[in-house]
Orotidine 5'-phosphate decarboxylase
Amino acid sequence: MLENNLNPDFRALPAKDRVIVALDCNTGWEAIVMADALVGKASWVKVGMTLYYAEGPAIIQMFKRRGFKVFLDLKFHDIPHQIEGAARSATAAGADMITMHTVGGRAMMEAAQRGAELGAADAGRSVPATLGITVLTSMDAGALAETGVTRPLTDQVAALAELARLSGISGVVASPLEAAMLRETLGPDAFIVTPGVRPTGAELGDQSRVMTPAEAFRAGSSHIVVGRPITQAPDPVAAFDAIAAELEGL
């Protein structure tokens, strides 16, 4: 069973506090304007590569000062020594969730967990959730086959999730279509964070394997990641509120 590194238990949280808003903005000021609008509404924001590489670790603290938890989605993938250092630095900077590619292997994921624990000790804070990327939600079976993986997509997800479990990290990032399978395999305490979530009627964008927010939670997701349906809506606050309302009682 994967260890839940974050307190409180995600199962005790209101559903809206398990919605991560992806601030996939090009500049820090765009992201801060959006975050300021969501203060008191959302609990989590996601910082991806574009924003982090533009603004550096300081962007994490900008969000933390506003009361947000930060999902730092840099998808680490390198030799174990480098990943241990990256996870340590990301944790010390304030990240509450970090990601790595499970295809980097067990030794790499174990190094990421060590780095997260060391970074938490350095900063005097709790250890973040450490998440392994299984198969990107933008990929389908054809795209996976182009990389040389010929087994069925769900088999690939299951095998990589098992590797994550053996590595001792907190959970996985996977499509909501695999959430039910992963919940059964990984147990009740594992983080299963699902991008590829789109409210009914929303455009799919570059996502191939999607569900609605309510469907994802019912399938077993611990957290869902929603970006453009909120951030590119005419009224982002109203869009977040609509998702929160859909999830009430789940």
Remarks:
- The chain has one domain: 10-247.
